[in-house]
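Supplementary Methods, section 5.1.

A reviewer requested that the exact input to the structure prediction be made available. We therefore reproduce it here, unchanged from the version used in the analyses.
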Amino acid sequence: MARPVRSVAIVGRGPPLWLAAIALHRAFAATGLAVTVVETPSAGPSHDVVAALPDLARFHRLLGIGDAELIRHADAGFSLGQQFAGWSGGEDAFIHGYGETGEAIGDLPFAPLWVRARAGGLRVGFEAFNAAAAGARLGRIDPAGPHGYHLDAAGYQRLLARHAARMGIKALRDPAPCAEAAEGHVSRVRLSDGQTIEADLYVDAGDGAGALIGALDPAPRYVAGRGSPCDRMLTASAPPLAPLPLYSRIAAHRAGWVGLFPLASRTGVALAYAGDTMSDDEAARLLRAQTGKADIALRHIGDRIRERPWIGNCVAIGAAAAGGDPIDAVELHRHQIAISHLISLLPVDRENMVEAGIFNEDVVAHLARVRDFQAAHYHLNGRAGEDFWDAARGAPVSAELAAKIDLFGARAMLAQHNHESFNADSWYASLIGHGIVPRSWDPQADRLPDAELIGRLQAMLSGVKQKVDAMIPHQAAREAA
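The structure derived from this sequence is encoded cell-by-cell as follows.
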C-alpha cells in the first residue's frame, strides 16, 4: 500500500532554500504536498553578484519567474558568457559564449573541421563562429535566444521569498533550528522558541556544516579531488559599467582570479585566492586597489562534494551538499542539479525511501563533472613561474578530465561522459581558449574537399554577422523584457 510523502520541511537560507520550496510546491501542491520553510539568518551584508547559466532561465519559466521581475527586483543584467583573461600568462582573453559554435556539416561536427582548416592556413579563431560571443563583445543580444544572468544576490533572494509567499508557502524564521535524529532519520526540527516541526521529508539548504544532514552524518566523506585551488573569496562593489556588459570577466592574478560581474546599478567585484599562497590582508589590499572601496566581505569557497547528500529522510542541497569556486556561473547550477533530481525522485513511500541511492549516484556524478569543467581552467593555465599557477597546473585531475584533454588534443574529438553539465560547444570553447591545438583531427573530416570546406566556413561567418546585426543593445533588451 502506498505511503506517499505528504509534508516536506526545508531549512536553510538563500536561493537554494527558496528555489527548492517553490519547485516542490509547483510540482506537487496539487497532490496535497505541504511545504514548510524555516529560514535562518543570512551571514550579513553582501556584495555578492550571482552569475547564472542559461539553464536558469528555463528553470525560472517552470517556476513562473520572468525576466521583468529579475530586472526590477534583482538589478539583473543578461549574460552571454564569461571572459577569461590572462590565464595563459599574457594579455590573451577568450569568451566562453553561451550558444552553438559553428555548424555541423552533414554528420561532421564543427570542431574537427575548424582544426583541419586551421592547419591549412585559416586565421579565423574558433570564437568568431559563436554568435553569443560576438554579440557579447559588441553589447548586443537576441532576447529570445539562450542567455544567462547577473543577479544581485540579496535582491534575488528577496524576490524568491516574495514569490514563495504569493504561492502560499508557509515560512518561519529562526536563528538556530536544530535537528533531532533517531535510527538514521530526522524525527523533527526544534526551533529556538521550543516549537517543533515534523515532516515526512527534510531538506537541508543550509551552509556547509549541514544543520540537518549533519545530525545524521557528523563526519561526512567527501568526493576525492577538487575543481579549484581557491578556498577564499573577497567581494566588494564598484561603480556600474557603461554600457552594461553582456559578460563577466574573470582575470587571473598571481594567486587566483578577480571577477567583474556587471549589474545595472553597480559592479560586483570578487577576488578568489588560495589562503596558503596569499594572506587575507594582501588580498584585501589588492581588492581595494581594484575598487577604491574599503567595504569588503570574506567568504570561504572550499571545494567539497558530499558522497551522500541524501541519508535516511534528509536531503542536502546547496552549500550543505557541495560548494566551491563560482567561476563558470555554476553556483546556482549546483542547486538546480540537486533540486531537479529531488523533483524527479520524490519518494513514493515515506517509510522506505529507496530513491536515495540513485539520487546520490546521479547528483554526485553531475557535480563531479561540473568540477572537471572548472578544473580544466586551472590545469591548462600557462602562467609560468608563479607558485599558485605552477601548482595548479601540476595538480592531479580526474580520469574523466584527463581522458577528455588527451582525446581532444590528439584528434579534436570530445569524450562525453555520463552526467555532463556542459555541452560540447562549452568544452571546445574552454579547451581551445586555453591553448590546446589538436595535433590532428577525426579522419572523417577529410571527406570534405578544401574549397567546399572554406566556402562553408565563410557562410557560417556570414551567418554569425547576420545574427549579430539582428540583435539589439543590452539596455534595449532590458527595457523590452
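The radius of gyration is 23 Å. These observations are discussed further in the main text.
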